[in-house]
Structure formats: C-alpha cells, structure tokens
Specification:
There is one protein chain. The protein is α+β, with helices and mostly antiparallel strands. It has a single domain, classed as Sandwich (Immunoglobulin-like). The chain has a five-stranded mixed β-sheet, with no helix packed on it. A four-stranded antiparallel β-sheet has the order 2-3-4-9. A hairpin with a 2-residue loop joins β10 and β11. The longest helix is centred in the N-terminal third of the chain and has 20 residues.
Amino acid sequence: MKKIWYVFGLLIILTAVTLSAGCISGPSDTPAPVTQVPTATPTPVPTPAEVMQGQELTVTDTGKTISIRILQKKFGSEAEEILAKGSAKNPKPAPGQYAVMLKISETYESGDEAAKVVAPYHYEIYVNGIGYPAVSAVLPNGYTPLSTTNILKYAKIEGWLTYIIPQGDAKLAYEVKDEPLGFIRINY
C-alpha cells in the first residue's frame, strides 16, 4: 500500500512539473517593440462673428449660408403685457429677470441642399456668458412664433421668440449642436 501512495505522489509531482514548465521563461535580451500612438492635430474652432442689433449676421451652417436679423424687440413690461394677452399661463420673469421678445428673420442664401431646417433651438440669448434658450409661450394675434420648419433656398422666414433672461450684457446666438456660429448684440 505504501508503494501505491509513493507512485501516486510521484505522478502528481511529475504532472505539476510538466504543466508548469511551459509557464516559466527566462529574461529576454530583446526589448519589446514600442507602438507609436498617432497624435491628432486639433482642429481650430473659428471665432463666432458678432454684429450689432440692426445689422445682418451671416453664418455658414453645415455648408448652408444664412443671414439673420432682429427685426423687432419687445423688452421688460412691454413684453410682459404681450405675454399676458397671449395666455395667463405664459412664463413670468422672477425678480431680477426680464421678458424679451425678438422678431427674427432668417434667409437661406446659398448651399448645396434644396432645403434647410429653421428651429427655435438654433437661437439662444447669452447674458454675461451664460446661455438661455427660448421659452415656450402662447402669443396673441399679430405675433407669429418662429416654428420648426423647412425653408427652400433663397426663402425667408420671420417669427417671434420669447426669452426670460437676467439683467446684463445680452446677445442672441445662432447655434448648431450647442456651438455658437455668430452673435447679434441686443440693445436695451
């Protein structure tokens, strides 16, 4: 019986040595090859154009050239009265804030495609560097809101956008994918 245990133990030791023989290696004099990681050259972000209210802003949006202008502006109590006529449920500014209504004109000047999307989410007012999107509001007769739609090349669309913004230096931005392409300064 002792021989069986002796043979069995010897078999276990030989099996362990055989299995571990392929896992152990000596140090190598050849260095491992170094893989070069390609470095990308950053694409410079263009500085957005900026014009004064009353001037036309021209920007290129994904190959489409458009011109934008603020046609009319309602500010403070005048804008609040118009919003109150539209609906009692319209947003009201908190203390230190103002209601601003802008009548925007957008023209599709040139581009490769036949049509372009016009949408309120392309327009945001920046006050002291912080962006404020247009708010949803019911407007009274005579104030057509700027709605999401398509326009053909050389077509022009006009409509009102409503904002609730704090006091400060304000400018309207035309944005694509949350990146401002140009600004129109707003005079109070």
